[in-house]
Every structure is written in C-alpha cells, then in structure tokens.
Recover the amino acids of this structure.
C-alpha cells in the first residue's frame, strides 16, 4: 500500500514527524494544522477543545483526516491524495492516552509485554525487564493497574508504549493527575530514554507551566488553528502574537544571569540581561553564573506612585510609564525600569493612581511571582 | 421421574449453549460495534423471540421446516429427512429461541469495555481479532457467562417451541418440560410435581451462578 | 352526588333482575363448531346467554378441581366427568354421554396417497415418514388411534414413525403443515369448515377401537344450575342432535 522505508532511524532528521492535517467535525469544528516535530519533546499547547487530542489521534491513525499528509521519517503514514492510510496497528506509534487505558485484567508486566507478542518469550521478558527497571516499576511488576499509584500507572503506560520502540511518542496530558515531584522525575526518565532513541515526542498539555518549561519546541493551538510554533521563548516573544501571550498568561520573559545564591533565604539574585536590573527569584538547583529564563505574569506586578515601605516583596524597581492602553476591561501598561515590564491593572487603579504616560512609578514583584523556565541548552 | 426426558433436556441445553457461544460471539461483536445505519433492524430481529409467544415462533418454525417451505425442501434434499420431529430440529428451534439470551448479554458486555483499550491495543500493533480475544473477551467474562448460563437455563425450560416442532418422541424430542405437561395432562400430579421441583432447583442454581459471577468483576 | 350513586345502583340491580340468565360452558375443542351453532340456537329460542370456552378437557378438569365456576362441562373424555362426579365436584346424576367421537385417517389435499383405495395400508406407504396422532397418554383420540393401530396389527410397524400432538388440533397442524405425511384425526375436526377443503379423510372402522364416549356434567360450583339443566336438555333435542351429527359426532348410545 505504501512505500515503507522506515529503516533505522539514527539521524533525528530522518525520524522527524511532519503532519499536515485537515479534519472537519459534524459540530462545525475544524482542525487545520501543519506541524513538524524533530527528535525530542514538542509541546502541543492549547485550551481544551482547541484540537490537541485530534492531532494526536490523526497521527496515531485512530482518526482519519479529511485531507492532508502525515509522514514519519521517510515513511508516509497518511496521504489523502495518494490514498495512503496505514492502519493503526502498523504505524508504530507510541500513545499514552489521557486516561492511560491500561488493561485492567493484566499485571503491570503483562501490560508492558502486551505489544511484544510477536517476539519469543525470552526476548519479551528481557525487553520488559529493561523497561521495568528504566522506569523504576520493577517492584510493582506483578500488580494490576487498580493496585498501582497514579505515578506508577503513568510509568507503566509510558513503558508499555515505549517498549515496542515506536517511531513517535504521543502523550496526552500525561502529567495532569500527578504532583510536581512525581512529574519532574517522570520527565527526567522519559528524557533519559529518549537520549538514546531520539524520536519525536508530541506532548499535549493545557498547562502553561508545562508548555514553556518542558519543550524544546512549542506548538500553540487555538480553535483548530496553529497560532505559532517554535522555541518557547520565540513563541512567547513573537510581537504580534498577543493571543499566545494571553494563552500562556506570561507577558514578561527575560533572560538573566544568576549572580548569587542565598540558600538560607531560599532565593537567588539574577541580573536581567543587557540591563542593571536585579531580581530576587526562587532558589533553583543551578550555579552562579548560569543563565536562566524568568517569566512574570503582567497581572502579578504591583504598581505604586510613591516608594512603598514595609513590604514583604523583595523586588522594588523604579521606572517610568512608557505607554498605557485599554484592553478589554484591563489596562495594559509598559514601564521602563532599564528593561521594559508589562503590567496589567484595573481601570479603577489607573484612575486612583492618576497614571499617565511619563509618570514615575514603582513596581513591586514578589519573589514567587518570578517563574523560572527550564532551559535546555541545545 | 422421567430421567430420559431430563437427560435429553440437559443434552439439548448443552448443545444449544455451545453452538450459541460460537455464533453469538460474532453477532454480538457486530451488534456492539457496527455503525451501520440499519443495525437496529438486526437488533430487533435478534430480540424478537423475547416478545413473541413461543407458540407463534413454533408455528412459523413448523411451517418453515415443512416440505412446503423452500428451507424445508432444501434440508430435505440435503439430508434426506425433514428437520421437524428430530433432535437437530429442536436444536435449530432452540438456537433461534434462545439467541437473544446469549447475544444481548454478550453485546452489552462488549459495549461496556472501554473503547480506548481497543485503541491502545491497536497502537501496540495488535490486530482487531487478537484485541478482541486478548482484551474484550477477558473483560467481558461476566457477561459471557451470564449469556451462556441464561441460554442454557432458558433452553432447559423451553416448552412452547418444543411442543410445536418436537412431536413428543421419547428420547428424541420429549424434553423435561413436555414430560411435565404430559404428566399434568394425565393427572399424574405427584410425578409432575417431582420433575417440576427438580427443574425449579436447576433453574434457581443456574440463575444464582449468574448473579454470583456478576458481583465479582475486575476492580476498576 | 350520593343520590345519583344510589339511583345508579338501583338501576343496575333492576336491570340485573330483568336481564336474561347467562351461563358459562367449558367444552372440548372438537366441539368448537357444533356447540357454537347449538348455543346460538339456544340463545335465539330462550333469550339467555351462553358463554363458550373451548380448550383441552384435561385443562378444564384441572381448573374445575381448583375452583373454576363453569356451569356445564362438555368433556371429550368420559373419564374426567366421572372423576369429578366421584369426588363430589360435579352433580353425579347430571352426567350424560352426548356423543361418541370417530377417528379418521387424514392426508393433505396435495398428498399422493389415495385413502379410498389404500385404507389403513396408506400408513405403510414408503412415502410416509411421520404419522401424527394425539398423545395417547392423555388425549382420548390418541388413545383410540393407538388402540386401532394395535387391533389392526399395525402398531409395531409404524411405532417409530409416530409423532404425538399435544391435542387433536395440534396433531392436525402437524399434518396440514406437511411435516407429517398422514395423521389420525377426529372426524369432527376434518369436517369442520376450516379443515374441510384442506385434505381428504377415510373413516377407520369403528369396531377397531373402543368408542370414544364424550360426556357432559354440571359441576357442583355452577352458578346457575337451572339454566345449565335447560341448556343440557336442549342439547338432547333432535334439533341439536342433528347439528352434532352434521359435525361428525355419532348419537349417544341409548340410556346410561
């Protein structure tokens, strides 16, 4: 049916996913998406109903696009013009569903070996054993899903989809139900697995924190359309993509250098790049001199017209209002403090402060309003 | 007590349950998953024996097995004898009569299995048929046992259809329910009572099995 | 409101007092056509109403035993009324043999068998695979059929071909549908309007089986014994007897 040239996938380029999908639903919703994913994590970010899961289902072959073309490495999985549609079972797609879809009647180990029935029993067992160990679930191998914790279930699902050595991994809100430490541990294990395999991973989430912390790339989806795709900071900084900024809820993103760590205080001081502005941010496992990326919601910044006193907030910056703009029911201000901060306040606040362009103001930023974005050096 | 009639009924119920297990699976699978627009018509036909009086069904079967129907003629030509008044005839009649008791619990059980499990299975490279065998069937076992036990019990106690197409031949078509009826007609109330009580006990036992099995499903 | 209700009750009781009597008659199925006509004439003559219930004599017997209130019971089998009389459930002196049944060989109209020529030998024809008779265990016509086969030395030859109908009507169904090639049925049934054109019959010699005496009796629990007696008396009249004969019942042997 199709020219299957999957072969071995040693170069990231060869294994990359390119999907051009058009799919219309009876309710009127239409997905039109053209996205590319190289080896590594690509976050597909958007609100619920934006079409994220539809993208995954089309790639997996569970849904047939009305038109388009999906290619994985050199292998065409779907092409509406050439009438190619490789069945799900032959696509070699790893898929971790949002509800995991573990087989309730099988043990963790049996779940993992489920997709290996074509192998001999011994090969099956050794492959499963390796996965059980790599994903730290060897101790629960004989339990059924009902007897596993949420994190363990997640790991079993991940191991089950990876043990078949898929050419692409699809993750649908995989961390939504987990607490933070469990989340980062799991991501670390997934990354370490993928260092060897270098397959594209489509990671669907509606959480902005995950979206801009994890991805080497982000694809922003809204109402079935792709608003932007690229590096997280590029996507966020793209000047005209206001929707993305709103979606992400993060208007202020700065590259900064760690100047000093105050471990007893739980903070560290960073200097924003190309400026003399210093910010105290939450302590991270990082060394002085490293570069970090800091994100601050415009709505988290307080503004005062006189220097405030007796505040718990560690960051107090003097600046000048560059612009004021009414946006819906909010007022959007740009304040120059050496770098430009975006600040959101209510029209009431604007009036009581008698704000105008050129006015001298003070910005107050709590340490915990400064979010550190994870920074993977390329 | 007529042990011959009882043994015949048990044999009939057993044969019918086994055959229904084999043909009920694909029918139930199709009913559970087909998206054909006219599927409801097939569902209605399968459910028809639930609402039709056994005498009506029996009468149609008698006519269909007779030499004046094309089906009856076909059978006659193929096997040299008519299907009516034979054990095979009773099996065929009971298959139709008990079909909904097998297919409906099967289909309900298949339908209640999370479809995403089948999708997960497909992404793991497993074919539909194997997915059915490895995921759907094990997760439907309570419904499958229910269907089998119900069709067994229903065939065991079947009366109207057997009366219509059986011809009451001892050891061939005189089942236990016919025997009870004959005894009542011949005013042998004591003997009728004994056999009826036994049938009641067996029916109670099989239904208890159904409910016991249904209480213990896979957790979550 | 209350007065209206009283008036209504009064009206109903007056009507009930003026109204002609009504009896319920339980009768064996083979009487369906004959007795319907007899009852109809009786209604025209007397202005009383006769409600007819047809069914298996054995079932009616069981029902009367369990408290059913029929006014007259016409049984295809003399045994049932006798048993009722013996146990005090029916008024013994009212027992009356109203007729005797006859049995016939019957084949569907499209049958190759020529009953007129072959007579009982038709049962041995190679084209005959199944022979339908009523269940001898409890159906009087079945008992007669079996006795006739025995007496004519045919029983051992045809035993494996016998299929048993639960009553004489179902036996007829087996043959009419073609599943059995020939059957032994009641004469009253094969001359009935619904069966007359569907096949041909041959009367089995009456001396080859004990006569099938059919009897009526008034149960003790009857609600209107006077009217029940009046109806039985009418069935005895030459007019009613002629109708019964027309439908295949032989007149009762004199006195009993």
């Amino acid at each position: 049916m199709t020219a299957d040239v999957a072969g071995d996938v040693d170069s990231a380029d060869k294994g990359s996913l390119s999907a051009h999908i058009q799919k219309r639903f009876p309710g009127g919703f239409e997905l039109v998406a053209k996205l590319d994913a190289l080896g590594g994590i690509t976050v597909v970010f958007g609100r619920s109903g934006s079409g994220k899961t539809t993208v995954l289902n089309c790639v997996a072959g569970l849904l047939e696009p009305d038109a388009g073309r999906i290619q994985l490495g050199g292998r065409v999985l779907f092409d509406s013009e050439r009438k190619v549609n490789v069945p799900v079972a032959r696509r070699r797609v790893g898929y971790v569903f949002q509800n995991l879809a573990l087989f309730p009647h099988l043990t963790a180990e049996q779940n993992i070996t489920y997709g290996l029935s074509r192998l001999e029993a011994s090969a099956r067992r050794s492959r499963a054993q390796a996965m059980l160990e790599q994903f730290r679930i060897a101790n629960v191998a004989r339990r059924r899903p009902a007897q596993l914790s949420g994190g363990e279930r997640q790991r079993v699902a991940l191991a089950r989809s990876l043990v078949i050595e898929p050419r692409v991994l699809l993750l649908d809100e995989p961390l939504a139900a987990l607490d933070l430490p469990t989340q980062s541990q799991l991501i670390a294990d997934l990354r370490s697995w993928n260092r060897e395999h270098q397959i594209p991973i489509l990671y669907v989430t509606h959480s902005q924190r995950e979206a801009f912390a994890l991805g080497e790339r982000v694809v922003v989806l809204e109402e079935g359309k792709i608003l932007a795709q690229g590096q997280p900071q590029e996507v966020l900084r793209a000047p005209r993509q206001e929707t993305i900024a709103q979606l992400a809820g993060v208007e202020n993103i700065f590259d900064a250098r760690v100047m000093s760590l105050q471990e007893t205080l739980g903070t560290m001081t960073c200097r924003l790049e190309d400026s003399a502005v210093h910010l105290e941010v939450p302590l991270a496992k990082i060394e002085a001199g490293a570069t970090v990326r800091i994100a601050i919601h415009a709505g988290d910044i307080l503004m005062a017209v006189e220097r405030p006193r007796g505040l718990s907030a560690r960051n107090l910056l003097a600046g000048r209002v560059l612009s004021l703009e009414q946006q819906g029911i909010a007022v959007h201000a740009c304040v120059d403090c050496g770098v430009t901060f975006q600040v959101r306040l209510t029209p009431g606040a604007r009036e009581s402060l008698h704000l105008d362009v050129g006015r001298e103001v003070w910005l107050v930023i709590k340490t915990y309003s400064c979010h550190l974005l994870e920074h993977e050096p390329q | 007590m007529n042990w011959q009639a009882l043994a015949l009924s048990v044999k009939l119920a057993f044969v019918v349950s086994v055959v229904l297990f084999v043909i009920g699976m694909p029918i139930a699978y199709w009913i559970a998953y087909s998206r054909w627009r006219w599927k409801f018509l097939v569902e209605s036909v399968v459910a028809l024996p639930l609402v039709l009086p056994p005498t009506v069904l029996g009468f149609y079967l008698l006519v269909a097995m007779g030499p004046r129907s094309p089906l009856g003629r076909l059978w006659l030509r193929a096997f040299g004898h008519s299907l009516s008044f034979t054990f095979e005839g009773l099996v065929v009649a009971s298959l139709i009569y008990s079909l909904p008791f097998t297919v409906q619990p099967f289909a309900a059980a298949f339908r209640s299995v999370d479809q995403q499990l089948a999708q997960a299975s497909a992404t793991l490279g497993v074919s539909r048929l194997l997915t059915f065998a490895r995921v759907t069937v094990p997760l439907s076992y309570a419904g499958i046992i229910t269907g089998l036990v119900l069709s067994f019990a229903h065939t065991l106690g079947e009366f109207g259809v057997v009366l219509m197409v059986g011809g009451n031949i001892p050891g061939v078509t005189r089942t236990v329910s016919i025997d009870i009826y004959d005894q009542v007609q011949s005013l042998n109330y004591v003997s009728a009572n004994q056999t009826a009580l036994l049938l009641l006990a067996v029916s109670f036992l099989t239904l208890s099995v159904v409910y016991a099995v249904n209480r213990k499903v896979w957790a979550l | 409101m209350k007065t209206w209700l009283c008036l209504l009750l009064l009206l109903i009781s007056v009507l009930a007092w003026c109204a002609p009597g009504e009896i319920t008659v339980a009768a064996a199925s083979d009487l369906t056509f004959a007795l319907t006509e007899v009852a109809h004439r009786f209604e025209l003559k007397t202005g009383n109403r006769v409600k007819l219930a047809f069914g298996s004599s054995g079932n009616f017997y069981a029902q009367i035993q369990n408290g059913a209130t029929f006014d007259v019971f016409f049984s295809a089998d003399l045994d049932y009324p006798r048993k009722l009389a013996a146990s005090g459930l029916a008024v013994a002196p009212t027992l009356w043999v109203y007729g005797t049944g006859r049995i016939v060989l019957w084949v569907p109209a499209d049958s190759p068998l020529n009953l007129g020529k072959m007579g009982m030998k038709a049962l041995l024809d190679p084209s005959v695979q199944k022979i339908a008779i009523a269940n001898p265990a409890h159906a009087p016509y079945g008992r007669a059929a079996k006795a006739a086969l025995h007496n004519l030395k045919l029983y051992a030859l045809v035993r494996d071909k016998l299929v048993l109908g639960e009553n004489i009507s179902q036996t007829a169904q087996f043959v009419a549908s073609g599943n059995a090639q020939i059957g032994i049925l009641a004469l009253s049934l094969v001359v009935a309007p619904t069966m007359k054109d569907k096949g041909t019959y041959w009367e089995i010699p009456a001396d080859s089986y004990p006569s099938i005496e059919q009897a009526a009796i008034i149960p003790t629990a009857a609600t209107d014994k006077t009217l029940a007696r009046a109806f039985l008396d009418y069935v005895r009249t030459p007019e009613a007897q002629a109708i019964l004969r027309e439908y295949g019942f032989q007149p009762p042997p004199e006195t009993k």
